[in-house]
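Ticket closed. Logging final result for Exosortase/archaeosortase family protein.
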Amino acid sequence: MTLAVRRTAFPSRVTVVVLLATAAGLVFAHRLYRTAEISLSGAVLSVISSHGVAVVPDRQTVYFGLGSDTPLGLRMTPECTSAFLVLPLIVVGAAMIALRPRIQHRVLTALGVAALAVVVVNQFRVLTLVGLVDWLGVDTGYYWGHTLLGSMVSVFGGAAALVAFVWLATRK
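Final structure:
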């Protein structure tokens, strides 16, 4: 019995290389990604906040509640970015396309939906933290918003994005 290795089509190989390069880019340029992510947080907060908001891109920090009794700055650290939740999805997507080139379109669609979901969930986590700081004060609000509720939002949101990715990529 011989096992035939099926070669991937040229466009699929290019897609795999682009996805792996994107994954490497997320690792090596995570600072740029975090800057974009915290800038998005600042833009969202500017729209919904009645207090001042300022973003310092060089520090990947958003300051909110400016002019209120509870101003606070949040720094987007490597542990808090959505980049490292998107990274495994990209690598798995590349592997799926390499192994089954004909599902390339489904995998790319699933990857787009799941990546967007992870980014939205991370923005929701930031908004949750901001809301709790505003409601409960800096000490209690930050503790509940970052350590407990924020972690739960990330875990459940990441799990939902993973389920959506697998379902969309593998359905017929």
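Helices lie at 10-28, 30-48, 83-99, 104-136, 138-170. No further action required.
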